[in-house]
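Help needed: design a sequence for this.
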């Protein structure tokens, strides 16, 4: 199979899959380690009860920023691959 006929690598799937895997591993670590769970509960309880309607715009900006960051990472990987293929 020539270089032009090979199927391309779906970098977006790889990056987002890695992000989901990282989230899953983090969740497992928190769920399986009682020490970390206790620390997180002590820290998150005041945060969870202080979340109000005024916090939602901040959280939505953080969510959009996370998606933009992941898409930028995908774009950088694709650009590097194109440059490497050109050289």
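Sure. Designed sequence:
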């Amino acid at each position: 199979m020539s270089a032009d006929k090979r199927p391309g690598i779906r970098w977006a799937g790889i990056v987002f899959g890695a992000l989901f895997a990282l989230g899953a591993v983090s969740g497992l670590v928190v769920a399986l380690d009682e020490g970390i769970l206790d620390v997180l509960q002590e820290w998150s309880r005041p945060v969870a009860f202080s979340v109000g309607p005024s916090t939602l715009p901040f959280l939505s900006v953080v969510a959009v920023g996370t998606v933009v960051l992941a898409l930028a990472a995908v774009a950088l990987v694709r650009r590097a691959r194109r440059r490497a293929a050109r050289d």
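The chain has a mean pLDDT of 81.
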